[in-house]
Design brief:
single chain; mainly alpha; two-stranded antiparallel ribbon; 10 helices; 4 strands; 3% strand; elongated
């Protein structure tokens, strides 16, 4: 009886591998994995290079062509012989560097336009410097020598102050019986004819900072002018640059502005700051916060009395000039905007 060739019951004997063969097989498999990994890495690298520039989300660094590399720069500028990679780049170059317009024609105006006008600071300084050059304010006396300035006579200043005191006595000088009791009058008269270096000796030049009077004890500032002394210095300096009529107006303005400050801020004076018979705000404190009181001066001090006869528009110009003078001389950190006449 013949045996069936395809007998499922019959199995081929298993082929046994020795230890060396197993080791060699594992080694070959390990090398194959490493080679496959290298191939995969290379394929990824090639894929990134091929997709460079095509996918905007891929942030791939690329080397930028230098200006010295002229390969593929087919667009030549006829004005300066520079080469570009594209037509738009050449067009932009010709617009910015050679002044060509959108139509391709060369514009008459090249480069940045010149700045017209002055800066805010320069304009304010010019208005300040030319303040006393107008017909209303300028000194009309012709001098033989250039740069000579008129010294105002002491008696003229006395007469101006007496006239102002008498005209305003009922409104603001009710508590003063005689002008000789008026401290600001005495300060002006006693120093008017003195040389600048002789006015206000060092022992008289001190005051307290008006910047922090609301919250803390004011700091004493040595060798610093108080407000009364600054009012005098301003009046003395510009009395030489103006005519008699405007000097009268300016003196009256200074007196009224001083009295306004003393009325408005009398409650802010610290009792311990009253030194050497100085009891008024303008005798004790500096000018740091003076610009803050300008609105009160016009709206609440002058208006009830019809401005004490002062022209309102001219008073606005003058108070701006005074505050700017304080600012440029570092007596205050703030200033009002100067307006042209």
């Amino acid at each position: 009886m013949e045996e069936k060739e395809n007998d499922p019951q019959k199995k081929e004997p298993e082929k046994k591998e020795n230890i060396y063969d197993e080791y060699q097989k594992e080694k070959d498999n390990s090398l194959s994995v490493k080679e496959n990994q290298k191939i995969n890495d290379q394929e990824k690298e090639n894929k990134i290079e091929s997709e460079e520039g095509e996918n905007p989300q891929e942030k791939v660094k690329r080397r930028r062509r230098g200006k010295s590399e002229i390969n593929d720069r087919k667009y030549l500028c006829p004005d300066c012989d520079k080469c570009y990679l594209s037509g738009p780049a050449l067009t932009t170059h010709r617009k910015t560097k050679h002044g060509y317009g959108n139509s391709g024609e060369k514009s008459k105006r090249r480069g940045r336009p010149k700045k017209e006008g002055l800066s805010e600071g320069q304009n304010a300084q010019n208005i300040f410097n030319n303040f006393f050059n107008t017909e209303l304010r300028k000194n009309n006396i012709n001098f033989e020598e250039k740069n000579e300035e008129k010294e105002v006579d002491l008696n003229d200043m006395k007469n101006n102050l007496i006239k102002i005191f008498n005209n305003c006595k009922e409104q603001i000088f009710k508590d003063i019986n005689d002008i000789n009791e008026y401290s600001f009058y005495n300060l002006i008269i006693n120093n008017w004819d003195k040389k600048e270096e002789e006015r206000f000796p060092s022992e008289e030049r001190f005051c307290f900072s008006g910047q922090i009077i609301k919250g803390e004890n004011p700091i004493k500032l040595d060798n610093t002018y108080n407000l009364d002394q600054l009012f005098f210095n301003y009046l003395k300096e510009f009395s030489k640059k103006t005519n008699e009529d405007y000097l009268w107006f300016m003196t009256k303005f200074i007196v009224l502005f001083r009295e306004c400050i003393n009325i408005k801020r009398k409650d802010l004076i610290k009792p311990e700051n009253k030194i050497n018979n100085r009891e008024l705000y303008t005798q004790i404190y500096n000018a740091e916060t003076v610009p803050e009181i300008c609105n009160y001066f016009f709206l609440e001090f002058l208006e009830p009395y019809d401005g004490f006869g002062l022209n309102k528009d001219e008073s606005i110009h003058l108070i701006q000039h005074f505050c700017y003078w304080l600012y440029i001389n570092h007596y205050t950190q703030s200033h009002l905007t100067l307006l042209e006449d």
